[in-house]
Design brief:
By secondary structure, this protein is α/β, with parallel strands linked by helices. Bound molecules: 1-deoxynojirimycin.
């Protein structure tokens, strides 16, 4: 045995040394095999990939979660191929595996990274039980367009919130060590700018200036890299004229050059071949060349690499050193995962699906994700003691599959506890529950059953109206141009309202919906996103006051679709709107039109503010913020400042508040957002209790990428706010000064 063979076998050698030793023994064909992922879904005979596996032509498979088949594929790769290299087994484990957690946008509404981490850990344990060792999550694309179906999979509009939740998920999936049983490699996707697709149409073009890429879209990816994410996936989209899958600026210059990322990059499904459809390349052959040289290490579910890369190397258009670097990155992750020691999955070594831990985590996550948007006259919580009967109405009250949301390939709908079931369990025989589905699904336009809904509402003391979107209305390729409640739901609300009873709307949806047309028709709104397996019990606990809502919006809710994009960290512009420089279309003075029009950045036919701002979320108690202080009026560059406030629970319930810290850099060499989230924390307070909440900021937290693409902190005045929503006016200020030394 030569030294490199010995090193390969030496488990104490580093993954890097072992990968290098292995690489030294590989033929070019075997190397390109590692760069190829193939679809291995169900329905294929087990030996379907056998020949290619034996020849070392496959590095990874996707979409098989039958543990026996996966073990058999691993066995062929390990025992029957020349070098015995185990497979990466990939699957979209997005917000749970069998046990489903709220959609990522819902998880972001918890503003609680530890909730996301635990959810990802549970998902990893369940997925690993099926032989999966690589997930394509988290999606950390900043999403400021609720029309985009994939906003459901995102953590919303904010750089810091997305970065924190994404990093927490990476930690949950990958565990303390990738080699631990139950750890799976994570994949931050879709690099980069995917969330900026024009008009929210999935796969459409993205045009994002470099300063915005760097200050907004890149940053959650950088945070994922800092959290140790193993892999990144490219976006399907065209980015400033160069589709991400062929974009060496983002992959080589930024990701590898500036961030020193040493994991590997996978394309999105068939996106290497799509370079030709974009019009960047002539054919698959050129696509393979462009993607590989741009820095895509593995091709997902396409055959451009396997058909053409070898020829490119032989002809000299791609160097073998370039291929080696890509293969090294892939092999390193395989070594880190411990696959060479343990390629097989023994389900007995992993927790059962949907065990106690999983169900508790799903319930906690759902509980903290629900946002109380409106609660007129404190109608919520309903007290079962004072009510004899409740009408539960709507297509989403008892829809076990729909409450799970998008991207739940392996989710088990039979585990779902629906709101109707949970409400019945909670109130027992004390309260009469009349259930009327009223619509076949959320899109139905038939209203024959509305009379039954009105009848039930009249006979009840209160109405719980379950509205929203079925899961198919959001997710990949499921964008909408109209984000009102679909079907005849608005009419259902109006009819039910006419019964004259208190109406609580519980909305299950994959995106922010425009709610202007029902907001006045209901007394309260609980926004529950698609809350997952344990959504029902979480909603029931909140409705009846066993728990207090604490979710906060991770994304701005527009009044009308025409306001999009509307997000809290917008720029001020030269003519910012305010209450005294806008006019409404109905108030235009016909006889003096020129003078009555406001001259600012607003729409004539709606208000310039959103319906609900980022960070908004009510509670059953009220929190007061007082006595805001900054530790210094001036801090030198490189210094730290403490910003604190006193928070008091002024109501009767023990509750949690998400305290949010925002800053504004007033004057800078490029214009800066009017507010940027710089910190957040959950604080639990008993009735009457007060606490001082303190945030520390280092001047580097106030850095931004300037005109030259470099990170900089500029001295000057900063405003700082602490509050329970982005529209807080609880403000102080400080100044950054040049340091003396
Ligand atoms: C396409 C999606 O864009 C991506 O997010 C997903 O991971 C792959 N398909 C694999 O299913």
């Amino acid at each position: 045995m030569n030294t490199s063979e010995l090193q390969l076998l030496d488990m104490k050698a580093s993954p890097d040394d072992r990968a290098r030793a292995l690489l030294g023994q590989m033929t070019l064909t075997e190397k390109i095999g590692q760069m190829s992922q193939v679809e291995a879904g169900h329905g294929h005979p087990p030996d379907y990939l056998g020949e290619r596996l034996r020849a070392g032509l496959i590095g990874s498979v996707i979409n098989n979660v039958n543990v026996e088949t996966v073990n058999e594929l691993q066995r062929i790769a390990v025992e029957e191929s020349r070098l015995g290299i185990p497979l990466l087994v990939g699957r979209d484990v997005i917000h749970g595996f069998k046990t489903i957690f709220p959609i990522p946008l819902g998880q972001a509404a918890t503003w609680n990274p530890s909730i996301a981490k635990e959810g990802a850990r549970v998902a990893a344990l369940e997925a690993a039980r099926s032989g999966v060792n690589w997930t394509f999550a988290p999606m950390v694309d900043i999403s400021r367009d609720p029309r985009w179906g994939r906003i459901a999979e995102s953590f919303g509009e904010c750089v810091l919130l997305t970065s924190s939740m994404g990093a927490a998920m990476v930690e949950g999936f990958q565990g303390e060590s990738l080699a631990d049983t139950g750890s799976i490699a994570a994949c931050a996707k879709h690099f980069a700018g995917y969330g900026a697709v024009e008009s929210g149409r999935d796969y459409a073009t993205t045009n994002v200036p470099d300063t915005k890429l760097r200050n907004v879209y890149f940053r959650p990816f950088h945070a994922a890299v800092d959290a140790g994410v193993s892999t990144l996936m490219t976006s399907f989209s065209d980015l400033n004229g160069v589709p991400a899958t062929g974009n060496s600026y983002i992959l080589e210059d930024v990701l590898r050059g500036e961030w020193s990322f040493d994991g590997f990059v996978v394309s999105d499904w068939d996106s290497v071949r799509q370079l030709q459809i974009h019009g960047l390349t002539e054919d698959d052959r050129e696509s393979a060349l462009v993607a590989a040289t741009a820095g895509v290490d593995m091709e997902m579910a396409g055959d451009a690499y396997s058909n053409h890369l070898q020829l490119h190397v032989e002809e000299g258009s791609v160097s073998e050193a370039h291929i080696d670097a890509a293969v090294m990155r892939i092999l390193r992750i395989k070594f880190e995962l411990g696959l060479f020691e343990n390629p097989y999955t023994d389900p007995g070594q992993l927790p059962a699906f949907a065990d106690k831990r999983a169900m508790k985590a799903a319930r906690d996550s759902a509980l903290q994700s629900v946002v109380l948007l409106k609660n007129q006259n404190g109608i919520l919580p309903l007290s079962e003691k004072k009510l004899d009967s409740i009408a539960v109405i709507g297509p989403l009250a008892d829809a076990p599959y729909e409450q799970l949301g998008t991207w739940i390939f392996d989710g088990d709908e039979s585990l779902s506890v629906t709101p109707l079931r949970a409400i019945r369990d909670l109130v027992g025989s004390e309260v009469d529950i009349q259930y009327v589905r009223a619509m076949e699904n959320s899109r139905s336009r038939f209203n024959e059953e509305f009379y039954a809904a009105v009848y039930a509402a009249r006979a009840a003391d209160a109405v719980l109206l379950f509205l929203g979107e079925e899961s198919i209305l959001s997710g990949e390729a499921h964008s909408r141009a109209d984000i009102n409640l679909p079907g005849d739901q608005v009419e259902l609300v109006r009819r039910v309202r006419s019964a004259g009873k208190p109406v609580v709307a519980v909305i299950l949806a994959g995106r922010p919906l425009t709610l202007s047309n029902i907001i006045e028709e209901v007394d309260a709104i609980l926004y529950a996103w698609h809350p997952g397996t344990m959504g029902g019990p979480a909603i029931a606990d909140l409705v009846f006051g066993r728990e207090v809502p604490s979710g906060k919006l991770p994304v701005t809710f527009p009044r009308l679709v025409g306001q999009i994009p509307i997000y809290y960290s917008q720029k001020n512009g030269g003519k910012p709107p305010s209450a005294d420089n806008v006019v409404h279309i109905d108030d235009i003075d016909t006889f003096a039109p020129q003078t009555s029009l406001g001259m600012s950045a607003f729409h004539l036919d709606t208000c310039y503010t959103p319906l609900f701002p980022f960070g908004h979320g009510l509670s059953y108690t009220t929190f007061e913020y007082n006595n805001m202080r900054v530790s210094e009026a001036e801090i030198p560059l490189g210094g730290t400042i403490a910003i604190s406030t006193e928070l008091t629970n002024c109501g009767d319930s023990e509750a949690e508040e998400v305290v949010q810290l925002y800053t504004r850099d007033l004057v800078a060499s490029i214009t800066r957002p009017v507010k940027e989230l710089k910190g957040f924390t959950r604080v639990r307070l008993s009735p009457g209790e007060s606490k001082t909440v303190t945030f520390e900021l280092h001047t580097s937290d106030l850095a931004f990428f300037g005109r030259d693409g470099k990170r900089t902190v500029e001295p000057g005045l900063f405003h700082v706010w602490i509050g329970g929503s982005s529209d807080t006016d609880h403000r102080a200020e400080f100044r950054i000064i040049q340091s003396q030394d």
